[in-house]
Amino acid sequence: MHGTDCIFLLRKRACDPCFFYLFAREMTEEMVEKAKADYLLTRGKRLVPKAVLFDMDGVLYDSMRFHAKAWKEVADRYHLAASEKDFYMYEGRTGASTIDILFQHTFGRNATEEERERIYKEKTERFRELNDGEAMPGAADVLDKAKMSGLKCLVVTGSGQKSLIDKLERTYPGCFSPEMTVTAFDVKRGKPDPEPYLMGLAKAGVEPNEAIVVENAPLGVRAGVAAGIFTIAVNTGPLSDDTLKAEGADLLFPSMQALAAAWDMVVGAG
Ligand code: MG
User: Fold this and answer.
1) Residues near ion ligand 1 (Cβ under 5 Å)
2) How far is the CA of 55 from the centre of ligand 1 (A)?
3) pLDDT digits (tens, 9 = 90+) for 137-183
4) H/E stretch holding 211
């Protein structure tokens, strides 16, 4: 590409506020206000945040890379066609649903109950071996700011880890409680169905326009949007920003640190 072409492209694309954001890596007040105005327009209610519903993997913990690696290893073992990146697209689904997709793509049929159980067990064991339990950089700052803003903090996850609350308490002391947590055990239908987020609203005792969802996965964004909640996508993985925006995210940040930096703008009156 010639220099002049490059300048032309930059000028052309700089008219798009999302490109400006990617270019500048900075969320402006104007962009936040526009997102809130768009929410009011489409939902008929102003965003008045009282609670934040956090997804867990890829939002509170830097764990998606280990989930993807564990899934890929087990898929290879069973000759199931998938790339590591595919598992970022499937994130949020139940294990059984993910395994059925792999079987459909490879063999044109769903997995049997026995296959589902065996493969999911092996994946869970491998994830436990790989996972280092690292918190997502910036997540503690977002939680601090949310608490200082007087917002209730909830976790809404498709995870079925037995010791979830203990783990959350170790990483984020005093932030979450069992009554304010929605897990795989609480819902019939996982993300992308809105049920987990609707249950989060019920547990928080708030309306959709009184909550904010923080999600990293396309299907999680879809679930938050379907629940009528102002949904913030945080792109902490290898997928394109467009993949998250296509699911209807109201705002998009490149990291939890960037969300923490813009937090006061997001929860402020508007
Ligand atoms: Mg996630």
Assistant:
1) 55, 57-58, 216-217
2) 5
3) 999 999 999 999 999 999 999 887 778 888 999 999 999 999 999 99
4) strand 211-215
Mean pLDDT of 236-252: 97
Q: Could you tell me the CA-to-CA distances from 86 to 31, 199, 244 in Å, in that order?
A: 31, 28, 14
CA distance between the termini of the chain: 42
Q: Which pLDDT belongs to residue 163?
A: 80
Determine the Cα–Cα distance for residues 136 and 144; give it in Å rounded to an integer.
Answer: 14
Mean pLDDT of 82-101: 94
59 CA from centroid of ligand 1 (Å):
6
Query: What is the average pLDDT score of the chain?
Result: 90
Task: Note whether 239 and 85 are within 8 A (CB).
Answer: yes
d(CA 180, CA 101): 31
Mapping DSSP to helix (H, G, I), strand (E, B) and coil, where does residue 142 land? helix
What does the pLDDT look like over 5-21, one tens digit per residue? 333 334 334 444 444 44
Could you tell me the maximum CA-CA distance found in the chain, to the nearest angstrom?
61
